[in-house]
Amino acid sequence: MHWASGIWWIAVGALLIGELATGTFYLLMVACGCAAAGVARLAGASIEVQWAVAAVVAALAVWLLHRSPYGRSMRPGATRNPDINLDIGETLDIEGWHNGLARATYRGTQWDVELAEGEVEHAGRFEIAEMRGSRLVVRACPNR
Question: Does the structure show a pLDDT above 90 at 100?
Fold first, then answer.
């Protein structure tokens, strides 16, 4: 069963290729587990020990990755992400408020507008901070 150690290294290669296609780092952690199992095979460990080493190392590596800053999503949600919603950061004029809500013309049509938390009601120019469905959530422009 000399070919068994080669299987672990083939798995490492396949996982690395898959990692290059996805870019999530999780397949890289599983590849680390397979590499550890390949090293265990070269050290003469039984197949059961190899599988245990692969599982423990991969699980530990995934757990550590998940707890690191690289495992957390740093992107804002789609409602606040200007890469998804091109309206985020655009400005509009609001003439009056009623309990934190208003109607404003933006892109040639009327929109429901909501004041962002912590903002003060006043007439003037506002910046779109978020889009919740068809409602614009705005905050005061920094240069008002």
Answer: no
Segment 2-34, tens digit of pLDDT: 566 689 999 999 999 999 998 778 899 999 999
Q: How many CB atoms lie within 10 A of CB 60?
A: 14
Q: Could you give the domains of the chain?
A: 4-71 (no CATH), 91-140 (2.40.50)
Asked if residues 99 and 91 have their Cβ atoms less than 8 Å apart, the reply is no
Residue 85 has pLDDT above 90, yes or no: no
Q: For residues 91 and 126, is the Cβ–Cβ distance under 8 A?
A: yes
Coil/strand/helix, residue 129: strand
CA 9 to chain centre: 30
Non-local (6+) Cβ contacts of 72 within 8 A are none
Tokens of 86: 């091109």
